[in-house]
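Now for a chain:

_____
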Amino acid sequence: LRAELSGEGDTPRALAASLNGWAGAAVENGPLAAQMLNSLLIPLRPLHVGGPDVMELRCLAARADAKSGIVTIHPMALSTEALILEGSGDVDLGHETLSLRLRPRTKLGGTGIALPVRVSGPLRDPSARIDISPGGGGGGALAGLLLGGKDVMGAAGGGDPCPDALARARLGASEASGGQK
């Protein structure tokens, strides 16, 4: 975990609304409790990871840049044997709202699925819906939905998001802006 953040305010909300800077989190190769992963997937009901109680985490990485309480997350990646999740978006800490575009990839009963999802609304009660918009990562209609024999967990589904997400999460401010601060 690396971060350079600043803010000011008399309350946690005021402090969050003034947040400036960046943060990066990068974790790779370790055990992950399925229960913890499922608790993160609650807004994406009915997506649920079954199987063993502990699974192998390939990576969990996110880069967040904040300006006046608006946090831009790009990229975000989670990769396990059962689920690959890529995403990006914004979190408005002052208004306590979010707008994220996520693309979970998994196999259900031997069928591969990759489905763009938009998670938006208040932080305390976000809603999730299939994102069929042209800019939603699905290419319009249901073009983002991959079914059947395609390998959605490999190159055919978009490849491994870990290398790029881990590298970006580990960058400092000047590195992320190409040396410009």
The CA atoms of residues 10 and 114 lie 44 Å apart. The longest strand covers residues 20-33. The mean pLDDT is 81.
